[in-house]
Amino acid sequence: MALPTRDSEPRLFSGPAPGLRLVVLVTLSIVLMVLDHRDQHLARIRGYLAAALYPLQEAVDAPFAAQRWMATNLAARDSLVAENGQLRREILLGSARLQRLAALEAENARMRALLDSTPKVGNRALIAEILSVDMDRLRQRVVLNRGSRDGAFVGQALIDARGVVGQITRDRGTSSEALLITDPDHAVPVEIVRNGLRTIALGTGDLERLSLPFLARNSDIKAGDLLVSSGLGGSFPAGYPVATVQEVRGDSGEPFLVVSARPEAALERIREVLLVQPPPADVAAPPEDRPLPPPPPAAARMGKPAGRQAGAAQPGTPAPGGNAAAAAPAGAPGSVPAPATAPPPAPAEHEE
Questions:
Q1: How far apart are CA 259 and CA 213, in angstroms?
Q2: If you classify domain 113-279 with CATH, what class do you get?
Q3: What pLDDT, in 10s, does the model give residues 155-197?
Q4: What's this model's pTM, rounded to 2 decimal places?
Q5: Domain ranges of the chain
Q6: Element (H, E) at 25
Q7: Of the candidates 179, 158, 182, 183, the residue with the CA atom closest to the CA atom of residue 169
Q8: What secondary structure letter does DSSP report for 282?
Q9: Which H helix or E strand runs over 56?
Q10: How far is residue 204 from each of residues 62, 179, 183, 216, 227, measured CA to CA in Å?
């Protein structure tokens, strides 16, 4: 059996010379372009081809599109998080400065009568974040990310954008532990903005309630009164909102009112707080070591005025060799007339 050779194979794709094929194809292309340009005969065919190739284009572009989307979204998220944190800090600082307006208005109304003022806390404050919370009914405390290395100290007051939060009770160097005002072991001196009545607000273990147990039955207090820190004791700066009176009840036979108030601070939602810095003048300076004063002279210890000689004659004191009448001025109040006695004998003269 004879094998087919190259010359004996059927030439299905044989045709004219390459130069002639090129001329024919170029001519056909020009004709199609002219027809499409004038009458838009190939627009529909081109649309079908584009629709058929669209999934392939999307598949090829998918990795690049995913990379662009991730880069854009991650960059935008980081920017939004930073901007959100900055805005929240600015709002917190602004609210802390504005929340004292109610107390300042009441204070300005009393300034003409008082003619005195107390030093106010400045605007220096340190922002701290809440690391952990302990909201047990008998123990309501939080842990802050600020300690003595950051300028915090034991006894420092905590406030948020609405009012007083609590007080630092333990320093850990890089962190600190704070006691909330609703803790059963906490008390804060307060005063009523409406009339200046001072009392003490005690924690009850309930985040929504404070107790004012030391108000007599005739105290001028009613529901809706705003309580602000009085500044007594030096633990909390004066004028910051603490709570709003919710209920006033006077039980028969009891000498004190039953008063409950709702804290102004959002204790159940706090995430950041301000550590209020007192002005330097409010910090007590340690006592200076001064030498003891010198002891008084001997004349002062004997009942005689210091600075005089022991032998000097004093007014109203008999002179040596004289009588009391001569020493005391005549007619002086409290003077006693001398008795009519013979004068004492003159001293003997010394022989030469």
A1: 7
A2: mainly beta
A3: 999 998 889 999 999 999 899 999 999 999 999 999 999 999 9
A4: 0.52
A5: 26-98, 113-279
A6: helix 18-39
A7: 179
A8: G
A9: helix 43-98
A10: 61, 13, 6, 20, 16
